[in-house]
Amino acid sequence: xxxxxxxxxxxxxxxxxxxxxxxxxxxxxxxxxxxxxxxxxxxxxxxxxxxxxxxxxxxxxxxxxxxxxxxxxxxxxxxxxxxxxxxxxxxxxxxxxxxxxxxxxxxxxxxxxxxxxxxxxxxxxxxxxxxxxxxxxxxxxxxxxxxxxxxxxxxxxxxxxxxxxxxxxxxxxxxxxxxxxxxxxxxxxxxxxxxxxxxxxxxxxxxxxxxxxxxxxxxxxxxxxxxxxxxxxxxxxxxxxxxxxxxxxxxxxxxxxxxx
Length: 260
Prior knowledge:
By secondary structure, this protein is an alpha/beta fold. Helices cover about 15% and strands about 30% of the residues.
């Protein structure tokens, strides 16, 4: 979720007392991307797609949950915001450290079962709620729905969950399609990349056609950079597509619409 989004309650309504969560594991993927696995001190039920609010030293922020409800730990995929109030503190965490945890999950960005097909568009850490939804759906052994995930990043090593999603797409081809894309294929950091290229918002139309999706039975979920979300909405909303959205913000570079 947003690095600059504070936990706010209506005037006169007390906040729920904070629980805690212990860091069970930490994995650094790049200098500014990591995954944390947390063990809550209290039972923590949630629906796939919801978020939890964690904190350190009195600063709290919400983060979408990667793990599915049946998993033993809360899994969070976090991006460092160099001048943010919380993430530089989180980057000092080690196994065994403790963070505060609001005891209730929140959020309405959950699977809409009224639609049989689900087009999910994400940038970098915006993949988190989609991984949770897919893990939960497959764990339950459900049928009758198909998921189409488009995942964009500047560099291939920011596509942290690509191996998992590719493996699931191969194992369940009747349920999941996964397309990762990098926006800077010419840079040395992406050397050897042979997959899709371009900002994820620029390939949405192409894959809607490829997957033969239509507004009657498909809902579109947008999660990640606000600029990506605004651009995809401007493409699809006038055509009658139903959309759900969850905004993430990370500075360090302002969004620039792609050139025609």
